[in-house]
What does this fold into?
Amino acid sequence: MPKPPPKLFLSICALTLILLAAITACGGGDSPEATGEATATPAADRPAPATQATASPTPTTAPATPSPTPAPRAAPATQTTASPTPTSAPATASPTPAPRATAAPTPTLAVPTPPTPPSPPLDKTSARTDREALMAFWEAMGQTLESDQPLGEWPGVTTDSNGRVTKLILSRNGLSGEIPPELGNLASLKVLNLSSNELSGEIPPELGNLANLEVLWLNSNGLSGEIPPELGNLANLKELNLGNNRQLSGEVPPELGNLANLKELNLSYNQLSGEIPPELGNLANLNGCFSARTS
It folds into this structure.
């Protein structure tokens, strides 16, 4: 038979003691107290009153039957799989970008700069010719200049790096006399302007030798005679002004039609006669033409 639990057992014992105490207190018949008879009972023979348990006895704790401690369960063998220490991934160096394939520069051949050619030596013969031509001009004008003076310092004269005369501009200088033929020797001359003076005589045909001449202004003088056809040889001529000489006569030479670069032609206010030559129609670059006027 299974044992009652300790607490229940103690409770039953306590209840039994309480019941016994109550029965004893009430008795089974007339007690001496009820009859009023004092019956002396020797103390030795008197039964000791049962001690009424007023308080439930402190349950003695039965030795706790230790519940069978289950045998310690064998802890499952912990698989000590050491979590792999995160090894830092090997630093993968960012790949160095491959150098961009740049086209190999085309080797440029160093072209040696040609040395600057030295200035050509002064053509003393030509410069002497230019000096002689100018001296002849000033003598024709009734004046004398110092012969050893540099040509670039002479009145109205411009020279190039070689000392050759390129311009002779003496307009409005009150010059009088005839134009000497020696001016036709100024081979580098580009501009000849003797306008608005008091020049007389004929236009020397030697001026047709000035192959580099671009401007010829002999207007507003007192020139006479015919226009020399040799002026048609001035292939680089751009401006020809013979107007207002009052005394130029004869016909307009057809050779002027050879002046392919001519842009301005003035033959007005002269004594020219005859028809305008059709060859002037070849002057494709001509912008202005004043001709065949008479005074």
